[in-house]
């Protein structure tokens, strides 16, 4: 295909891929927390002092009952404040692993780092695609209209197809594989453009190659 016509076809496919990538990168709405049932609410409210019967209040306030409770606390070596704050007659010691630590250690932090890395990779892919379309439209297309160059939109078509598959996943191992393939495909597109322009010695083509190299560098940044 002629250079300008092939580039226009490539740009259209790249723009379609860019729209898909932006939609896939958009954050999902947060899930609303589950609402407590009426039975749960009723059970919690009954534990408050307003639901105690007069007989129950009299029993708690009897001097003998209070003295017995005090003697039990002294025998166990705990103060009343400790019993209230801990909510348990046998609190965990500082060295004893707590329930939330019994799960696989570091799992939450590893998941967070993994998700951060994926978001960063997706962000670089979106930015590189956007910048590539801009350079092709404003710098490369006018030059190809004057100096035809043999180009093929096959890689751009494949790039759009990969992005479409990736948008259907949004997460999981298949999403990560598609994201990697999209990176590699866009990398190939840019590298082929740079190689194709290497035969032209004019300053205008040097400017385009420099812009393409900068896009490639940002795409592959770690």
Structural class: mainly alpha
Portion in helices:
over 70%
Average per-residue pLDDT, rounded, comes to 75
C-alpha-based Rg, rounded: 33 Å
Distance, first to last CA: 36 Å
User: Percent of residues in beta strands?
Assistant: under 5%
Low-confidence residue ranges: 39-63, 83-90, 98-102
Shape: elongated
Largest sheet: none
Order of helices and strands: HHHHHHHHH
Number of strands: 0
H/I helix tally: 9
What would a concise description of this structure say?
The chain has 222 residues and is mainly α.
Describe the structure.
The protein has 222 residues and is mostly helical. The protein has a domain at 2-25 and 112-220. It is 72% helix and 0% strand. The chain has nine helices and no strands. Helix 6 packs parallel to helix 8 (173-197) and helix 8 runs antiparallel to helix 9 (203-219). The longest helix is centred in the middle third of the chain and has 40 residues, at 107-146. The radius of gyration is 33 Å and the shape is elongated. The protein starts with a helix and ends with a helix. 16% of the residues are buried. Residues 39-63, 83-90 and 98-102 have low confidence and may be disordered.
